[in-house]
Structure prediction request, 144 residues.
Amino acid sequence: MYTGLLHSHSYLAYLVLLGLLISFGNALAGLFGNKPFSDKDRKLSLLGLIPAHLQWVIGLILYFVSPRGASLASGAAMKDSVSRLYFLEHPLTMVIAVVLITIGYSRAKRLQIDSKRFKSIAIFYGLALVLILIRIPWISWPGN
Ligand code: HEM
Prediction:
């Protein structure tokens, strides 16, 4: 079960990054091109939302079955930067990123002014993308 989850989490990470990049790029193009926010734009923003939500669920289960997740948590592990990244920094930062993506998507759905809808996706997805990129465990991904 652990190996399957780890592989899923590892491969889905590509989709999360790709989906976010597409949604973010489309939002910037819409914002700076003064375009109307169409249903196509809403669907493109789902490309950033859906893989991130799936990844969150898999990550949460992985956290409790992985030897590098909750089982690692201890005062001593806090002093080790690699252990701290796996059991604390990565999960916490990713949860914040997924919350930001969800807020960006919901605001864009609710707002009435097209430029504000694009801006919501651009800002919240952009911030989430930065957070994800700085706390991916690059020491083990992609592959080694
Ligand atoms: C957008 C969200 C996320 C992305 C893009 C992401 C990405 C990754 C990547 C690329 C790895 C390295 C996989 C490998 O070594 O092959 C990883 C490992 C890990 N992730 Fe995530 N993750 C996300 C969310 C989460 C969440 C929410 C949790 C827990 C609550 C979590 C827990 C873990 C754990 C425990 C590992 C280490 C697994 C192991 O090596 O045994 N992740 N993550």
User: Anything to note?
Assistant: The CA atoms of residues 108 and 117 lie 4 Å apart. The mean pLDDT is 97. Residues 6, 9-10, 13, 16, 52, 55-56, 59-60, 62-63, 66, 68-69, 86, 90-91, 94-95, 97-98, 132, 136-137, 140-141 surround protoporphyrin IX containing FE (CB under 6 Å).
